[in-house]
Amino acid sequence: MKKLTTFLFILSFISLNSQTQNHRGLYVDNEGNLFSGKIFKVQNEVKQEYTVKNGVINGEVNYYYASGSIMEKGIFTEGKKDQKWTRYNVQGLVTAIAFYDLGKKTGTWLVFDDNGKKRFEMNYLNGDKTGTWTSWDENGAIVNEANYNPN
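User: That's the sequence. What structure does it adopt?
Assistant: Structure tokens below.
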């Protein structure tokens, strides 16, 4: 019975990972049909978990360090980064917060060092740099400021 359970686990793992991308970048099953469902894979020691609908990544996406702790999480809408994305260091501290609107950078982006101190603040509008961009040193002193006007 134990061997049968192990075999079924391996078989289900293989079937979960049998989706591939076709020449158009769409996820398909081993018969070439558009795939819908969860995909779990490991690439360069990064564990990836995402949902695919009709061949396109759509929904929450999570990336994990080899240790299992969360590296990055965000949302895809119809194959494009969307809404809030958050990146973490190995210790679980937030190192970056970014926003997208259907693949275009938008809003205020923040970058923190491994100790949680804010180091950069950047602004985007429809994918273009806008507003004041600021960077700080490790002591919290402003190092640089730049102003951008969108075209």
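Residues 58 and 76 are 5 Å apart (CA to CA).
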